[in-house]
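Work Package 3 (structural annotation) set out to generate three-dimensional models for the target panel prioritized at the project kickoff. During this period the team completed the workflow that converts sequence records into discrete structure tokens, so that structures can be stored uniformly alongside our sequence database. As a representative example, we reproduce one entry of 255 residues exactly as it appears in the project archive.
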Amino acid sequence: MPSNGDPSKLELHRLYSKHPHLSKHLPPTSSLSSSSLKQYLDDYRAVYIKGSNQHTGAGIIKAVKMKHGYRFVKVRGKAVDVQSFKDLYDKIKDGRPRRSIVVQKAIDLASINGRPFSIRLMLMKDGKEKWQYAGMLAKVAGKGSVITNVRRGGGYAATVDDALAQSLGYGRKRIEKVKRKLISIGFEIVRHATKNGYRTHESGIDLCVDKKGYIWIIEVNLLYPSYGLFNRLQDKTFYRRIKSLAAAYRKHSNS
């Protein structure tokens, strides 16, 4: 049964892990514990630690297993080196209850001039309650930031076309193929959520492409996704479309 209100990252990860296709696009993710963190660092070397109920990149930590000890960075702060695993775990946990934190394999994201980027995909219901593709953009990390959230990490918004061309050298046909795949995954995500009892009429889905071109699902926002970032793009087509779809749905739901 879905939880009331905004579902947590871990709850949604468990939901999509049961989907035969979407499960292949999920980075390994677990509730944080001493054993899960150690196992992830041993297996993947680099991990993200996130609040299961937090959004907008708040408090995200990237931890890396080094040759001697460990290193971690919080959002876009200074890198901190610790010698023992216990020190790392204590600092990452930082007094928060374990069940509120997840550990996730760090994906080697495609990047522009050394800055990784993720992709925000917006899907929205129209005035007839039909799901529509509303737009997508690339969120490029700020200098020294371990997150791609633009407001918190100091990055910038770009078109997905430009991001894929600059990072992976993709041509127009390859870019269009990737965008179709991103949209297809997005529709699968909302269909699976609604089929399992989750209520949503607009979804902001954070995806990414790794350096080998594989698509990963980073975060799903089924409620209250922000879309102000689309207004930062020079071309306002997506922003106008989002506003128009939101207005049409509101008018329908209030009638």
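Residues 119 and 138 are 4 Å apart (CA to CA).
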